[in-house]
Structure formats: C-alpha cells, structure tokens
Write a structure and sequence with these properties.
With 368 residues, this protein is mostly beta strands. It has two domains: 160 residues, Deoxyuridine 5'-Triphosphate Nucleotidohydrolase, Chain A, CATH 2.70.40.10; 160 residues, Deoxyuridine 5'-Triphosphate Nucleotidohydrolase, Chain A (Distorted Sandwich). Helix content is 9%, strand content 38%. The strands form seven sheets. Strands 1, 3, 4, 10, 12 and 16 form a six-stranded antiparallel β-sheet that branches. A hairpin with a 2-residue loop joins strand 3 and strand 4. It is globular, with a radius of gyration of 20 Å.
Length: 368
C-alpha cells in the first residue's frame, strides 16, 4: 500500500532515486537528463535488428526473446543508421530497482515523436509496452522503428523519457474544472472536460502566412537525432497553409497544432492521449508528456499550443478545423518541484506555436 502523497515524482525526487540506486546508471547522468518530472533515457552501446515488434511475456526476458528474433547485432558507439520500416531493440544505459510503491511510465520525447520515430520501452517479463511495474528490478530496452525518416543514433542518444508515479493519483473531471477555474488550463473559454480536457486542431492558421502544418516528404534525407538546428525544413517537409479541412492520406505523417494554448501549472504534470478512435480514422500518433510549468507565465510560457503528430489509418480521412483530436490528462506531483519547464533549463518548446522538432532550422512561412 502506497503511503504519502500520490502523484508524479518531480526532478529532485528522481535525483533521490538515482542516489538510492533505485535508478542504476551505466555511466553518470548527462546535463539536463533529469527533466522537471521525467528522466531522459539513453541508448546503450549495441543494437539488434529484429524480425518484428514483440513483448517478452510473463515467462521471458527480453534477452531470451532476442535469441530467436534477432536478425543481426551492431555497435552504436561510433553511430549507426536506423532505417525506416525496420524494428530495432537497444538496451538502455539506465536500469531500475524500483521500490514497491513506485512505478514507471515511458513515452517518446517530443523531438522523437515529431520525427515520426516509433519508440517504446520494454521491461523483462512485460506484457505491456512503456509500463514498468512497481517493484521492478532489471534492465530496460528501447524498441525503435523509424517510420518516415531514417535516423542516425549513437550511444547516449535520448529518444525516450520515463516518469515515475507513486500510488495511483486520480484527478476527477470535477477536480479538473476546479483547477481550470483557478489556473486556466486551456485558452478556449469553457473547456470540454470528459476524462480530460479536449484539444482541437487548428486548420485556419493563427500564425504569419496562414501556416497550419507540415506534411512529411516520403523520400527525404537522414536525420542525426543529436544535432540541433542543422536541417532545412523544405528538404523534409511540405508546408500546409490555411484551409477549413485537410484530407489525411494513409501512410502520410503530419505535424499540426491545437487551437488551444495549453497551461500546465507547476503543481501538476499532463499527458496528451489519443481521442476515441470511433469518431474517425485517424489518431494522434504519439501521446506526449507535458512537464510542470509548460505554458506557465512565470516560466516564460503564457500558454503554449500543443503540437500534434497525426496519421490516418487505412483510408483517407477528412479532418475538419476545430475537430477534437486528443485529450489532456492532468496528474498532481507528489511535492512542489524545484524546477519547472522553461525556467532556465534549456526547454526547447516553451511558448511554442506550430513547431517542428529541434533538428530543423527556423522556418519563415511568409517565404513560399
């Protein structure tokens, strides 16, 4: 039974897990590896290309499954290319020996999702992706499958992040309405609250030039995941301009933005989850973590729009301006954080509007 405040652990509590060897490091932490409410996970020194995605299941470790599923093994120390359409397994530099009342939940980093790199964390004996059960003691692995751009990675590259949760915190819809009344969680006036706050897609364009999004080019170049601001946008993306609707083509990847400016107060963290797939043949491709302080005025935010990574399913689908495309789930922190998103910690997406990943140079939508 969990004791003490339930919720998401802030950065200093994650650092305490490292000090207690509940998080075991193969090499010392990198600068800014501990984020306000999450820990970036680093790729290890080797990778396996495998025949298909898999879960080890209750009776097997990941290493045991690799004995039958691996196609070949290669080193990452000097860097290696991960090709689109292939599936790779990489041991992480972080393993865990979690207390019985602390569990982990992983997710792609924002920059990873915006590159359409499908990344999930696997634990030994796991029956679910991205879930590390309370009390788990053992290694962690990343499953990586680039979908649009081939990527260059190396030992220490950070594609995933993990949150640690004490107990089972619950924020009811009534709690969320009260929090919104105090903190204004989204800028859309009266929010749509039903198991989270609804986010809608902007297809009219609120920025200069009427830019509403980007569609990834099918045959673009390589992306070095550790290099910032090095790539020309138009070599990889087709800009999309103001329209009332957008036809999502199957197997195409889109970067769009929410109409709402999002605010995550320092007392909470949030996660964007896909909207009910029964309302349309599309989904927000990657759920996303929002750290405490995202869009917070005191941390330089004053509201920041959510960037949406969108795919259609098997058939073309018309997405309309203002259509609900995801929901924000808020959870409390176990205690007040010592640092928040954007507060002098090099956060890449504070005060963002429509924004590609940090690998691309700034784009001027007025230049067509």
């Amino acid at each position: 039974m969990a004791t003490g405040p339930e919720g998401i652990l802030p950065a200093h509590a994650i650092a305490a897990l490292v000090d207690r060897s509940a998080i075991v490091l193969e090499r010392p932490l990198d600068a800014e590896q501990i984020q306000p409410a999450s820990l970036d996970l680093r790729l290890g020194s080797v990778a396996w290309r495998v025949r298909a995605s898999f879960l080890p299941g209750r009776d097997h470790t990941v290493a045991e499954r690799l004995e039958t599923l691996a196609l070949h093994r290669f080193a990452l120390v000097e860097g290696a290319v991960l090709e689109t359409g292939c599936v790779y397994i990489v041991p992480l530099l972080e393993s865990v020996a979690l207390p019985d009342d602390i569990a982990g939940a992983a997710n792609p980093k924002s920059s990873t999702g915006r590159l359409d790199v499908f990344t999930r964390v696997i634990a030994d004996n796991a029956q679910e992706f991205d879930q590390v059960p309370a009390g788990y003691r053992g290694p962690l692995y990343a499953e990586i499958s680039p979908r649009t751009f081939s990527i260059l990675v190396r030992t220490g590259s950070r594609l995933s992040q993990i949150r640690f949760r004490h107990g089972q915190p619950r924020v009811s819809d009534d709690d969320l309405r009260t929090l919104h009344e105090r903190q204004v969680l989204v800028s859309s006036g009266e929010p749509n609250i039903d198991n989270g706050i609804a986010l809608t897609v902007d297809l009219t364009g609120t920025g200069p030039g009427g830019l509403v999004g980007f569609r990834a080019k099918r045959h673009a170049g390589l992306v070095d995941v550790d290099r910032k601001d090095g790539l020309d946008v138009l070599d990889y993306w087709d800009p999309l301009y103001s329209r009332g609707s957008l036809v999502l083509d199957p197997d195409q990847f889109y970067i769009l933005a929410s109409k709402e400016a999002v605010h995550v107060p320092p007392t909470h963290a949030a996660e964007m989850v896909p909207f009910n797939p029964l309302v349309g043949e599309f989904r927000v491709h990657y759920a996303g973590f929002f750290d405490p302080g995202f869009g917070h005025g005191a941390a330089g935010g004053t509201g920041s729009r959510a960037v949406l990574e969108v795919r259609s399913h098997e058939v073309p689908f018309i997405l309309e301006d203002g259509q609900i495309i995801g929901r924000l789930i808020y959870e409390p922190l176990t205690e007040a954080p010592e640092k928040v998103y954007g507060q002098g910690i090099g956060s890449s997406y504070q005060r963002q509007g429509l924004k590609l990943s940090k690998h691309f140079r700034a784009y001027d939508p007025a230049v067509r």
